[in-house]
Structures are given as C-alpha cells and as structure tokens.
Amino acid sequence: MAARTRPRLAQRQRRRISRAIQYTVAAAVVIAIAVFADWGRIADSFLQLDIAAGMFPAVWTAFWNTIVYTLLAFVFGMVAGVPIALMRVSAFAPYRWFAAGYVEVFRGLPALLVLFLVGFGVPQAFPGIQYPGGVYGQVAIGLGLTSSAYIAESVRAGIAAVPKGQVEAARSLGMSHTRTMVTVVLPQALRIVIPPLTNELVMLTKDSSLVFVLGVTTATMELSKFARNELTSSANATPLLVGGLLYLLLTVPLSILARRLEKRGDAR
C-alpha cells in the first residue's frame, strides 16, 4: 500500500503560523528586557527630571539653530542641485562630465569631511576669505554641497520619469531644448521627487549634528552639541535623551509626510 502523503498547508495558514512565531519571539524579547533590565539604574542615568528641566529654555536656541542649519543647507542644495541635474541630462557632453564628477565627488565624500574642507581648508587656501553669515554660511555651503549631489540625482530620476511624449509635444510646438526642460519637464519632475526631497530634509536634520566641528559658540550650537555639553556638566545621560526627543520632534513629522506623499504618488 502506498504511503499516505500529508496534506500541504495552505499559503494563508503558513502566513498565520509564521506571524504567530514572530509575535511570540517579539513578546519573549520584550519580557526578557522587562525582567532583566536594571530599571533603577536606567532611571538614574536617563530620567532625571531636574536635569531635563534645567536644560530649558536654553535648549530652544539649539533647537532653532538645528532648524535654521537644515533649511539653509536644503535651500543651497536645491539651488545647486537642480542645475546639476539639468547638466546631467544635457546634450552638451562637457556639462554631463562636470555634473557626473560633481555628483560622484560629493556623494562619495563624508559630510563631516566636506564641512572640514569648507570651514578650515578653504580659509587656508584663500587667506582672508569671509563666509556670509559666519558659521551659518559655512554650514549652508558645507552641508549644502553634499545635499546638492543627492538632490541632483533625485531630480535627474524625476526628469527621466516624465513621459517622453511631453518633450516631443513641446518640441513640436517650436520650443527649444532648454525651454522645454525648464518650463515643461522640470516642474513635473519636481512634483515627482517631492517624497525623496522630504527624506533629504530628514537626513539634513540629522547631519546638522556635525556642525560642532566648525567651533560653534553658545549662540550658534545645535542640539547635539548642546546635549553633549549638558552631559559633561551634569555627568548624566538625561540631556542625550532630551536631545534625542527634540530631534524626533523634527524628523518624525517629516518622515510621516514623506510616506504620505509617496502613497499619494503611487495612487496616481
């Protein structure tokens, strides 16, 4: 007599079993953390309310500086990145070569190194040079150079996503290549790349923590530097928790916005 074969589980049943195993493992990890963690020590190190309260209202200056640094770098990145993207798709080969080199260099270099070069390398090479706005100008250029390379690639991808029929229709009406790109293709491309541009804002918000390398003062320091200073003076990690929460206050809404914009774009 032939051996009976066991009936195979349906795909839905396999998914349920897999999901049950994952939930079980996750619950076990949470329970292990709750049981074995030294909550008293955690509270002493990270949850000192008096230290947290002592950071206010001074921390709002650092919070505001973080926003300003982010916006300045993003504006610089857009102003430089969009022309670089147009050069990447230009019919003039030297433009394409320059834009490709620019993108590869500033995407390949760490943002920290670019800030060093802007803050210390350029003044060494060109003595007496002054950045408009002081530290704010250095940050706008330093972080903006890196940001512009990523923005250029995002915009280039958006340009490639615009239907070719749009270009052909514009050219058939007698528009030049440049006018077609600027008035027809680019506006559509920018709408397409709004979600990745929002993600770039999130990345710039976090990269603003690198500004400390420029030697900021009390009036120009950002959240990360302020939290580290408070950590040193209080010998407690509570300022790091407060700084992290304030970063999340900036980045979480931007991340949610980016996801909603992506969903809206997918639905069209």
UniProtKB/TrEMBL annotation:
<feature type="domain" description="ABC transmembrane type-1">
    <location>
        <begin position="63"/>
        <end position="258"/>
    </location>
</feature>
<keyword id="KW-1133">Transmembrane helix</keyword>
<keyword id="KW-0472">Membrane</keyword>
<feature type="transmembrane region" description="Helical">
    <location>
        <begin position="20"/>
        <end position="42"/>
    </location>
</feature>
<dbReference type="InterPro" id="IPR035906">
    <property type="entry name" value="MetI-like_sf"/>
</dbReference>
<feature type="transmembrane region" description="Helical">
    <location>
        <begin position="240"/>
        <end position="258"/>
    </location>
</feature>
<comment type="similarity">
    <text>Belongs to the binding-protein-dependent transport system permease family.</text>
</comment>
<keyword id="KW-1003">Cell membrane</keyword>
<dbReference type="GO" id="GO:0043190">
    <property type="term" value="C:ATP-binding cassette (ABC) transporter complex"/>
</dbReference>
<dbReference type="InterPro" id="IPR000515">
    <property type="entry name" value="MetI-like"/>
</dbReference>
<protein>
    <submittedName>
        <fullName>Polar amino acid transport system permease protein</fullName>
    </submittedName>
</protein>
<dbReference type="InterPro" id="IPR043429">
    <property type="entry name" value="ArtM/GltK/GlnP/TcyL/YhdX-like"/>
</dbReference>
<dbReference type="GO" id="GO:0022857">
    <property type="term" value="F:transmembrane transporter activity"/>
</dbReference>
<keyword id="KW-0813">Transport</keyword>
<dbReference type="InterPro" id="IPR010065">
    <property type="entry name" value="AA_ABC_transptr_permease_3TM"/>
</dbReference>
<feature type="transmembrane region" description="Helical">
    <location>
        <begin position="62"/>
        <end position="86"/>
    </location>
</feature>
<feature type="transmembrane region" description="Helical">
    <location>
        <begin position="98"/>
        <end position="122"/>
    </location>
</feature>
<keyword id="KW-0812">Transmembrane</keyword>
<dbReference type="Pfam" id="PF00528">
    <property type="entry name" value="BPD_transp_1"/>
</dbReference>
<dbReference type="GO" id="GO:0006865">
    <property type="term" value="P:amino acid transport"/>
</dbReference>
<keyword id="KW-0029">Amino-acid transport</keyword>
